Amino acid sequence: MDLISIIIIGIGLSMDCFAVAISKGVCVQKMDWKMTIRMAFLFGLFQAVMALIGFYAGIGFSDFIKTFDHWLALGLLSIIGGKMILEGLKTQDCDCDCDSEPNPFRWKTLLTLSLATSIDALATGIVFVPYPDYIWQAVAVIGSISFLFASLGMKIGVSFGKRFNFKVEIFGGIILIAIGLKIVIEHLFY
Q1: Higher-pLDDT residue of 47, 63
Q2: Domains along the chain with CATH numbers
């Protein structure tokens, strides 16, 4: 596992955060950096911690999965990526109901969204079991990229609002499946 692969995994995982942040940005009239930083921090923190939890949960059965860990990585990343692609293909005008929620940045709302968008990172943490030397680097990269993409998503949502229909989940899903294929190819041919 190299840094480029970790960055690409981080980008793929951050697409859910990015899409949710865009939908939150659509719901507000102007950019509020305090709220944006709060949301982006929580998204990044949950993505990083869930990947770490997945890694440590996977260590318990690492001896068992050594012979097929590359196929497991492909399977997990393909399932997560496929789910993201299917979600991206669903036609929705907006992921948020702006009228029903007066404050889309309440702690309860942000914590719920942070947990929901980080479930994929929990499963992805298992991918790093064969690469224990990279886990802290991966956690830092995944958290940082999720923070950056959530901040950018908020800015895009506020700036462009409802003029565009974003399908970033499809892009993220394709990235995760491609990383799974890369892991299998590296294992089989190198």
Answers
A1: 47
A2: 3-189 (1.20.1250)
